[in-house]
Amino acid sequence: MTVTRRADIADPQGTTIARALHQLGFEGVASVRVDKLITLDVEDDDPDALTERVDDMCRRLLANPVLEDFTVEVVR
């Protein structure tokens, strides 16, 4: 799953990285956003049920619904 900070929420880590890139001479970087990629190995034969389980994990623990959005991708 990919967890991304909502567009209207400040990303201080991204701002720091953008500033450092400019200081290192990398021009043209307009902005940087730092997101999370979480990989889970979950056993379930039903892809729909698996997606629902992981969605529930995100809502309850893995993503902060106030600050972040998330997407779930099931790969077999």
Provide structural commentary.
There is one protein chain. The protein is α+β, with helices and mostly antiparallel strands and 76 residues long. The chain is built from two helices and three strands, in the order E-H-E-H-E. The protein has a three-stranded antiparallel sheet, with helices on one face. It is elongated, with a radius of gyration of 16 Å. 5% of the residues are buried.
Assign an overall shape.
elongated
H/E series: EHEHE
Low-confidence parts: none
> What's the Cα radius of gyration?
16 Å
Number of strands: 3
Give the class from helix and strand content and strand pairing.
Answer: alpha+beta
Helix content range: 25-40%
Mean pLDDT over the residues: 94
- Our estimate of the beta-strand percent is 5-15%
Q: Tally the helices: what do you get?
A: 2
How far apart the termini lie comes to: 14 Å
Major sheet attributes: 3 strands, antiparallel
Strand order in space, largest sheet? 2-1-3
Blueprint of the fold:
Blueprint: E1 2-5, H1 12-23, E2 36-37, H2 47-62, E3 68-71
Antiparallel strand pairs: 1-2, 1-3
In short:
By secondary structure, the protein is of the alpha+beta class. 37% of the residues lie in helices and 13% in strands.
Please tag this protein with its features.
76 residues; 3-stranded antiparallel sheet; single chain; 2 helices; alpha+beta
